[in-house]
Specification:
Layout lengths: L22 E2 L11 E4 L6 E3 L3 H12 L7 H5 L2 H4 L6 H15 L4 H14 L5 E3 L3 H11 L2 E7 L2 H11 L7 E5 L9 H11 L6 E5 L2 H10 L3 E5 L18 E3 L5 H4 L6
Parallel strand pairs: 1-9, 2-5, 2-7, 5-6, 7-8, 8-9
Antiparallel strand pairs: 3-4
Helix pairs in contact: 1-5, 4-5
């Protein structure tokens, strides 16, 4: 299963902005001594054409149920059910039923909305995050080793990769939460490194979640670049600060700041 902060079956809400002493990557400060780049998938390489809130609204309509919760309530329950849920459909159903129980609604309504959500969500309807497609092409051409470490079901995530036409860009793909524990556990990161024959200190992990991507990669000594997007919060999970090595406003910015795999 996907982690408690983001399944990225649906775009997550619980990203964190790091402390003020982080470095913002720029053309004048290249990221060097890197020969391998690992990427998160959802929110870093791609995103859905429709937001989770839009899909949830459509799910209520499809199920004929008056809306009784928003997408924030859904995400707030990820941590409580992620370990016991065998896949994203089960996780969503468990979350929706729990919300229904909490709010005095028939649990069957939660199940109905979860089923409708699954029918509305098309995993092939994804688009590149700003500049991500060009970055993958560029880094591949430059000779970097490329890998993917994503929290999510293999079938779902492969559908996204196939739709984007980038499956072959990655020399390895680790589907954390299924093949390994979910990020930020070290195992998915180390599995990708082992497959690529890469060293942590010469590998850059690029992700949009401080708690899952940046904190997890830093635990094993990898360099890190956080894609901020429109994230605005100031601390990591549990109030602790996570300080990324570099900060990128978009994945596309990575192309300008990597100095080349041989340097």
């Amino acid at each position: 299963m996907d982690d408690s902060n983001k399944t990225r079956d649906d775009t997550a809400l619980s990203h964190r902005r790091g402390p003020s002493n982080r470095r913002r990557a720029s053309n004048s400060e290249p990221i060097d001594r890197v020969d391998t780049v690992l990427f998160d998938l959802d929110g870093t390489v791609c995103e859905y054409e429709r937001s989770p809130g839009e899909v949830l609204g459509a799910a209520f309509d499809r199920a004929g149920v008056e809306p009784f919760f928003d997408v924030t309530a859904y995400y707030d329950r990820f941590g409580a059910f992620v370990d016991e849920s065998e896949d994203i459909a089960a996780l969503r159903r468990n979350c929706f039923v729990d919300i229904a129980n909490e709010r005095g609604r028939d649990p069957a309504l939660g199940r109905a909305v979860a089923e409708a959500f699954a029918s509305e969500r098309d995993h092939a309807r994804v688009i590149f995050v700003d500049g991500a497609g060009d970055v993958l092409t560029h880094l591949d051409g430059q000779g970097y080793g490329l890998g993917l470490v994503t929290n999510g079901p293999p079938g779902t995530q492969r559908t996204k990769l196939d739709s984007l036409g980038v499956t072959d860009r990655f020399e390895t793909a680790v589907f954390a939460g299924h093949e390994t524990p979910s990020k930020p556990h070290p195992e998915p990161f180390t599995r990708a490194l082992d497959t690529l024959g890469a060293q942590p200190g010469q590998t850059l992990f690029v992700g949009d979640s401080l708690d899952s991507d940046i904190a997890g990669a830093q635990k094993i000594g990898m360099q890190t670049a956080w894609v901020t997007g429109d994230n605005t919060e100031s601390t990591g999970a549990g109030g602790g600060e996570v300080s990324p090595g570099f900060v990128l406003e978009s994945t596309g910015d990575l192309r300008a700041v990597l100095s080349g795999p041989d340097q």
